[in-house]
Design goal:
- The chain is globular, with a radius of gyration of 18 Å.
- It is built from 8 helices and no strands.
- It is 76% helix and 0% strand.
- With 184 residues, it is mainly alpha-helical.
Length: 184
């Protein structure tokens, strides 16, 4: 199955657009699982559904002309990044609405305050991740896959072709960098 995905991605990049009919059903469940894990974290980004997140990330990835996929692992790594960008953009637009765009008076209650706190956290982590990416792109990718895509250490190890122990060691480094970036 992994080889099938890689072959279809290579064929797509070589100009065979008709392979999308074969590719989408194969990767859809994996992308949907990533999206569900992300939304299950209850980031408080409101009405964003896993189906919308899958479709938007898929279109974003395959619509990009400057991206080339080397294999399945690379594709899902980029999918994690696309999902992060979509969720972050959604959170920022929701935050902009809170700040006065499309202003509407509402009664403040704990639920609204909690939702806003989660949206703010998503935005803060997104900016911290940009700092980590400048220092160590591989660790930033790990944070994206774990934090934004909700992948387990075993799933990341499979995608990267390493042991889960290696991923765990990298995760400890990434958490330290993330904590440092968030503390600034």
């Amino acid at each position: 199955m992994n080889d099938d995905i890689t072959q279809l991605l290579v064929a797509y990049q070589e100009g065979e657009k008709d392979v999308l009919d074969e590719l989408y059903p194969i990767i859809y469940n994996d992308l949907r699982l990533i999206a569900k894990k992300q939304l299950h974290r209850s980031w408080g980004v409101g009405t964003l559904s896993s189906t919308a997140l899958v479709n938007e990330s898929y279109l974003k990835l395959l619509g990009a002309t400057s991206i080339s996929f080397t294999d399945r692992a690379h594709f899902f790594s980029l999918a994690s990044k696309a999902i992060r960008q979509i969720v972050l953009n959604y959170a920022e637009s929701k935050n902009a609405l809170k700040r006065g765009s499309d202003w509407q008076r509402v009664t403040l209650d704990q639920t609204l305050a909690d939702d806003q706190k989660r949206v703010d956290q998503v935005i803060e982590v997104g900016y911290a991740l940009e700092e980590i990416e400048r220092l160590d792109p591989k660790l930033a990718q790990l944070v994206e896959m774990k934090f934004f895509a909700g992948m387990t250490e075993l799933e990341i190890a499979e995608v990267w072709g390493v042991t889960d122990r290696t991923v765990r060691r990298s995760w400890h480094k990434a958490k330290a960098l993330l904590a440092q970036a968030l503390a600034v």
